[in-house]
Design a protein that fits this description.
Layout lengths: L5 H10 L13 H19 L3 H5 L2 E10 L12 E6 H12 L11 E14 L2 E14 L2 E14 L2 E9 L14
Parallel strand pairs: 1-6
Antiparallel strand pairs: 1-2, 3-4, 4-5, 5-6
C-alpha cells in the first residue's frame, strides 16, 4: 500500500501553505547551521553524482516537488514539473545509472549554490527556506536555473522538498538535473 494517499497530500498542502511567518522563525544559530550544513551536503552529493547517498538524506516516506504555478497549492489539482515520491526518485536514479537516460547523455556537470537559509518551526518538524542557483554544463552549453527551496525536516531527514523555479513558466528543456 502506498503512503501517498489523500492524508499524505493534505499534510503536504497544509505544511507548505503558511509556514514563513516571522513568529515561527528560529533564530538559534546552531539550528540554522545544522540545517545549512544539510542543504549544502545535499547540493554537493547531487553535484558529485552520488545519488544513492543523496537519497539517504531523505526519509523513507518523502516527496520532491517542483510546482509549475507561481504559488504552489495542491499538487493533485495543479500542474507540476514533477512530483516524485521515494519510489519514483529511486526509479530516476536507477535509470541514470544505466547510462541510457537520454536526458543525461552526455551527463551534466553541475554546481549548486545554496544561500539565505532561514529556519521555521512547524510543530515537531522544521521548515527551511533557502535560495538555489544551479549552473549546468552539458553538450557544450552552460545554463543557469534559479529557485527558492523549501525543505521539511523531521528527525534529521528531509521528508519533503519543494523547488520553486523562477523559470517555471519557460521551456526547461531538461528538468532532470533538479534531482
Amino acid at each position: 500500500m502506498s503512503y501517498v494517499d489523500d492524508g499524505f497530500y493534505a499534510d503536504i498542502v497544509k505544511a507548505f501553505a503558511d509556514w514563513q511567518r516571522p513568529e515561527l522563525e528560529i533564530s538559534d544559530v546552531a539550528t540554522r547551521d545544522e540545517c545549512r550544513a544539510l542543504l549544502e551536503r545535499e547540493a554537493r552529493l547531487l553535484d558529485d553524482g552520488r545519488f544513492e547517498e543523496w537519497l539517504g538524506l531523505y526519509s523513507k516516506h518523502c516527496v520532491l516537488w517542483v510546482p509549475a504555478a507561481e504559488r504552489a497549492g495542491d499538487p493533485r489539482r495543479e500542474v507540476t514539473i514533477f512530483f516524485d515520491d521515494r519510489q519514483r526518485l529511486e526509479d530516476r536514479i536507477f535509470r541514470l545509472r544505466t547510462g541510457k537516460a537520454w536526458s543525461q547523455v552526455p551527463p551534466s556537470r553541475t554546481v549548486r549554490m545554496v544561500s539565505n537559509v532561514e529556519v521555521f518551526r512547524a510543530g515537531e518538524k522544521l521548515m527551511v527556506r533557502s535560495n538555489l542557483l544551479l549552473i549546468e554544463f552539458r553538450a557544450g552549453e552552460t545554463r543557469s536555473l534559479a529557485a527558492w527551496c523549501a525543505h521539511r525536516l523531521a528527525h534529521g531527514k528531509i521528508d519533503a522538498k519543494q523547488i520553486n523555479l523562477l523559470e517555471r513558466d519557460q521551456s526547461l528543456r531538461n528538468p532532470s538535473i533538479l534531482l
